[in-house]
Every structure is written in C-alpha cells, then in structure tokens.
Amino acid sequence: MIIRVSEARVRPDRFDAFRDMIVAAVRDFPDLHPGLVAHEVLLAPPDSLLYVSRWRGEEDLVAYAGEHWRDQPVVLPGEDEYLLAPLRVRHFTSTTP
Q1: Which is it for the CA torsion 15, 20, 25, 31, positive or negative?
Q2: Domain CATH for 16
Q3: Which residues partner with 2 through β-bridges?
Q4: Phi-psi group of 6: left, alpha or beta (phi > 0 → left; psi -120 to 50 → alpha; rest → beta)
Q5: How confident is the model at residue 83 (pLDDT cuts 50, 70, 90)?
Q6: Domain assignment of residue 77, given as a range
Q7: Over residues 8-31, mean pLDDT
Q8: How many folded domains does the chain comprise?
Q9: Sheet arrangement for strand 48-55
Q10: Can you give 19-84 as a three-state secondary structure string?
C-alpha cells in the first residue's frame, strides 16, 4: 500500500471555498479510480488542507497521477487561485503489523 499526501497551503480568506471545492472534486474518486483503497480530507484552518489517499500499488498511482506521480501533484483546474504556495506531495508505505 502507498499513502499519498498532498498538502495545500491555502489563502485564509479562501479556505472555506477551497475546502468545499476539494471535497466535491474527490467525492467520486473511489468510483473513478479502482486502485484507491481509502481517502480523506484533513483540515487545519486557517491555511492548511491535506488530501490523504491510500492506493493498492504503484500501477494504481500511475493510472491516477501519471508517470511522475512521485514528485508531481495532481492539480485541479483553478486551484492555484486559492493557494499561497504550490502543492506539496509526499508518499509513504504502510507496514501494518
């Protein structure tokens, strides 16, 4: 399993609107991306939002994010107008005991 964390630094005056946009955008992701095991949006107002997604494996991430999934975030149209800085993406592997 690969855990992908996309971190957005959001303009505080646009935080609520950005949250609503992201929640609406990812709502159907499980139906659209079969390799997506679970996902959640984590909030740290006034300026930080994380999108955490869990994927079965690398093939599933390539299908979702493309060949450069390791270092390039998936950016939604118009997302830049809400952000203080470019999205940051990191990946973790899980070893559940």
Answers
A1: positive
A2: 3.30.70.100
A3: 55, 93
A4: beta
A5: very high
A6: 2-93
A7: 96
A8: 1
A9: 36-44, 48-55, 2-9, 88-93
A10: HHHHHHHHCCHHHHCCCEEEEEEEEECCCEEEEEEEECCHHHHHHHHCCCCCCCCCCCCCHHHHEC
What pLDDT is attached to residue 95?
A: 76
Task: Provide the pLDDT for residue 66.
Answer: 94
Task: Answer yes or no: is pLDDT of 97 > 90.
Answer: no
The residue count for the chain? 97
Give me the chain's average pLDDT, please. Answer: 94
Task: Give the distance, in angstroms, between the CA of residue 90 and the centroid of all CA atoms in the same chain.
Answer: 10
Structure tokens at 8: 């957005």
What is the predicted pLDDT for the residue at 87? 95
Strand partners, 76: none
- Please name every residue paired with 53 in a beta bridge, in sequence order, or none if there are none: 4, 39
User: What value does the mean pLDDT take over residues 72-77?
Assistant: 93
**Which residues, in sequence order, are CB contacts of 13 under 8 Å at separation 6+?**
none
d(CA 56, CA 39): 12
